[in-house]
Amino acid sequence: MVLDVDTSDLLTIGVFARRSWLSPRALRLYEQQGLLLPALVDERTGYRWYRPDQLEAARLVARLRRLEMPLARIAEIVAAPRGDAAGLLDAYWTDEEYRVAARRELVNHLRIRLLGEEGDLSMYDIQVRDVPEQLVLTEQRHVRVQDLPGWIDEGIGRLLKAAAGHGDGMVGPCFIIYHGAVNEDSDGPVEICLPIAPGSDVAAATRVEAAHREAYTRIKKSQVQFPQILSAYDAVQQWFDREGATPLGSPREVYFADFMAAGPDDLVCDVAQPIE
To answer: Which of 21-28's residues contact partners 24+ apart within 8 Å by CB, and which partners?
Structure first.
């Protein structure tokens, strides 16, 4: 095989694979993905060569793959400047920690379900508080569980926009009332409520949420996902059964912290049930 170009300063795919800790098969895959392109390809034989200065990027790819990082995110990190690349790595690992924590909470939820009446809900501390009357911006919809997170994000965004520039804007934690069950088979309805100052003039639906007492338990971000959040609802219900109290109206989730900025073990939400 004779090429019309000088390959003396290039590494064959076999040598490059050994030095980069990647297999030739992996290198071909990353070439197809546009992630790590050879410096030279023989059009007749398909043989590939790489530059020595590509080793650093190839080794970075190899290490990122050990994190089970998707190729699309690896491509973003490899292409980014060093400072930006570090930020992208941090963002990926934050997402991974949340997923692991959420899976751990799901295991806890499933264990409780499998144990039935012996399931331990003592991890949930139930408190009681008085909630004053509130004027709230509101949006309500029938929605299935798979569409619930997206609708909540969009709905809160719409209500925040409506509240902006009117008085003090939002004056208390946003809460979400479940007027009916939300799962794979039932669609609520669900109501998003955003407290605003009394007398605020806003171009959106408002109503008054009456003063009441409620029992609640505080949960972490990793416990908010469905279905593991149901364990918190069960714990609140057990409190009602144990205390002989009567629920009033519909249960709700009160989001008192910045959910997006919170870590998986940060407390972000109260699962609450008004008391008659």
So the answer is: 21/58, 21/59, 21/62, 22/58, 22/61, 22/62, 26/65, 27/58
Q: Tell which CATH architecture fits domain 126-275.
A: Alpha-Beta Barrel (3.20)
d(CA 17, CA 89): 24
What sign has the CA pseudo-torsion 147, 152, 158, 162? positive
Percent of the chain with pLDDT over 90: 52
Residue type, 48: R
Mean pLDDT of the chain: 89
- What is the DSSP pairing of strand 267-275 with strand 252-255? antiparallel
CATH fold, domain 11-79, is: Multidrug-efflux Transporter Regulator; Chain: A; Domain 2 (1.10.1660)
- Cα torsion 43, 46, 52, 53: sign: positive
| pTM of the entire predicted model | 0.69
SS3 (DSSP) at 217: strand
